[in-house]
Design a protein that fits this description.
alpha/beta, Rossmann fold, 8 helices, about 25% strand, globular, binds adenosine-5'-triphosphate, P-loop_NTPase, nucleotide-binding, transport, ATP binding
């Protein structure tokens, strides 16, 4: 279980969002974070690994205060997929995946058979085998996004946080990949928390939803999608209707 307790996030003294009740994420839950542009979805995800963005509160992970863990222990608990490209573009896809096994390898970084097996499995699951020897700089945005998601699975952590992980993917890859992640989360007992603007997909797949609206982050059961009230509050456009759980565009 990951629990964000008495949590407040922001930059310097400027609060972006706060939680009036603790946010608790259980094993094998697939959780979406929704909210309009600038609501604080990315800040919430980043704050889990970046203490500077936490104005208040603690993170309890599997009974431990997250801050008491060392860097390797943290890397075995949480994998992050962010929108920033914080890696060398001269790396090959396979090398990037190999590096994400670092928390499990010896000081010299020698990969074991088990590490290679995980990498091969993820390359195959994500249809990336053909790109394994390509430089990251040569990939399309969508290909790179699949590689970065694959990297988080290779890291093999109980909690995976993703910021708009499918924003560059075409509709086939998007639906297939999110369904794959949902199945992976159930079969491997992982908790996946992802920020998204894809309300229809979040509605179809999420077990729970975190909404961030006017500075308040709240956790809801998936049923929040079946009633229009919350969604109308967050997305008040007259060009959209939320009727019986379905989203309609009134163009
Ligand atoms: N480095 C920063 N310094 C100060 N304010 C920031 C910084 N980064 C983001 N913000 C502000 O924090 C607020 C939340 O931003 P955040 O990126 O978390 O929103 P978001 O919900 O992920 O938005 P989007 O859907 O547009 O990606 C915004 O008002 C943004 O301008």
């Amino acid at each position: 279980m990951m629990r964000l307790e008495k949590y407040r996030i922001g930059y310097g003294q400027c609060e972006v969002a706060r939680c009036e009740s603790d946010l608790a994420f259980a094993k094998a839950e697939f959780i979406s974070i929704i909210g309009k542009n600038g609501a604080g979805k990315s800040t919430l995800l980043k704050s889990i690994n970046d203490r500077n963005l936490r104005l208040d509160g603690t993170i309890n992970i599997d009974g431990y205060d997250y801050e008491t863990l060392n860097a390797v222990e943290k890397a075995k608990k949480i994998a992050l997929v962010l929108t920033e490209k914080s890696f060398s573009h001269f790396l090959k896809v396979r090398e990037l995946l190999e590096l994400s096994r670092a928390p499990y390898t010896s000081f010299y970084g020698k990969l074991r058979d088990e590490d290679q097996e995980i990498i091969e499995q993820v390359l195959s699951d994500f249809e990336l085998a053909g790109l394994a020897e390509r430089n990251l700089s040569t990939l399309s945005d969508g290909q790179l996004q699949r590689v970065l998601i694959a990297r988080s699975l290779v890291q093999d952590t109980p909690y995976i946080l993703m910021d708009e992980p499918t924003s560059h993917l075409d509709i086939n890859y998007k639906t297939d990949l999110l369904l794959h992640l949902k199945e992976y989360c159930k079969s491997h007992n992982k908790t996946i928390i992802y920020a998204t603007h894809e309300l229809q997909i979040a509605q179809a797949l999420s077990d729970k939803v975190v909404s961030i609206h006017e500075g308040l982050a709240e956790l809801h059961a998936r049923e929040v999608f079946n009633t229009s009230q919350k969604l109308k509050e967050i997305f008040p456009s007259r060009n959209i209707s939320f009727i019986n759980g379905s989203i309609q565009f009134n163009f």
